[in-house]
Amino acid sequence: IVALGARSQLTPVISAKAVELAVLARVPKGTEPLNREALRAGMRVARQLKRTRMKKEVPFEIPKEDLLDAY
Question: Considering just the CA atoms, what is the radius of gyration of the chain in Å?
Answer without folding.
Answer: 14
